[in-house]
Amino acid sequence: MTVYILKRLLLMVPTLVGVMLITFIVTQFVPGGPVERMMAQLSGVGTGHEAAAAAGLYQGNKGLDQERIEQLKKLYGFDKPPMQRFVDMMGRYLVFDFGHSYYHHMSVAQLVISKLPVSMSLGLWSFFIVYSVCIPLGIAKAVRDGSTFDIVTSSAILIGYAIPGFVLGIVLIVLFGGGSFWNIFPLRGLVSDHWRELSLAGKVLDYLWHMVLPIIASTVGSLAVMTLLTKNSFLEEIRKQYVITARAKGLEERQVLYKHVFRNAIIPIITGFPGSFITAFFTGSLLIETIFSLDGMGLLAYESVMNRDYPVVLGTLYFFTIIGLVSRLLSDLSYVLVDPRISFEGRQ
């Protein structure tokens, strides 16, 4: 097991470097980089004269001479060869120094931390709701396979799966957000403007009140996959010979289901738990955040790409790639913890 973990950790290094190198190369060829955008602003196309003037670079609408262009390149770190910039960047990233955002004028780490409450709220609530609803529902559907309950619930979750989250969000706003029917839930932010003045219970209720519609919109579409996975996993185990034998011995159906079937059928579901739990902290949905005016990771990623904010793009990619690689490793190791029959010794 130790050798396997070390091998996986070592393989993460070239994977991480490869992902960062490909993305870095792509950013070098994308038109409209930070230098070009600032040159356009300094030449009178667009805004940003005030920021440039503060840097002593703005010369009106006369155009920029080569000296000013070189100053801009140095300001954004583009005065060095691409390979040297990449090596320097990876050296800083090793100590988790992601630099400063060109667009937000603050460190990338602080920027990401400021956006995490929204992403964590959406991700963690969706995660817990999906697992707490889908596993019991999937078991009930497996036990009642082919019944009216099974058909009705399958139809309901598949309809929810077919409706895009942003469409459902708009429908919820129209129905319950003061659109054309009832004005029950708020439409923007995680909390109200007077949140700090509320009591502890009031703060909790206010937060939950704001999260109802976004969580419903982001969760409904995820119910079908996990529910059907749970159902099919339990159905496969229920039809095996050891279950028939257990029933022939006179065991109650409840004992057969939860003592024998459950611990085998739950393996493919539980093994995805670590990875899903970790990634839930950093989940971002641009459309959901935009519809409900939530300033989270999804909106940050979109703005960073559109504004060519390379420190944010590359810094968050580095961090989230590490998170993804670690979550995959934890998912693989969870197989061994859940099912002792599985061993990685053969792979060594």
TrEMBL record:
Q: Which PROSITE patterns match?
A: ABC_TM1
Q: What is its main location?
A: membrane
Output the Gene Ontology cellular-component terms: plasma membrane
Q: Which keywords fit this entry according to its UniProt record?
A: Cell membrane, Membrane, Transmembrane, Transmembrane helix, Transport
Q: Which GO terms describe its biological process?
A: microcin transport; transmembrane transport
Its membrane topology is listed as: Multi-pass membrane protein
Q: Where in the cell is it found?
A: Cell membrane
**What residue stretches are annotated with the ABC transmembrane type-1 domain?**
116-331
Q: Which domain of life is it from?
A: Bacteria
Keyword hit for rRNA-binding? no
Enumerate the transmembrane spans.
9-30, 122-143, 155-182, 207-230, 265-292, 312-338
Q: Which InterPro entries match?
A: MetI-like, MetI-like_sf
Q: Which PANTHER family match?
A: INNER MEMBRANE ABC TRANSPORTER, INNER MEMBRANE ABC TRANSPORTER PERMEASE PROTEIN YEJB
Q: What family is this protein classified in?
A: Belongs to the binding-protein-dependent transport system permease family.
| Protein name as it appears in the record | Binding-protein-dependent transport systems inner membrane component
Its taxonomic path starts at:
Bacteria, Pseudomonadati, Thermodesulfobacteriota, Desulfobulbia, Desulfobulbales
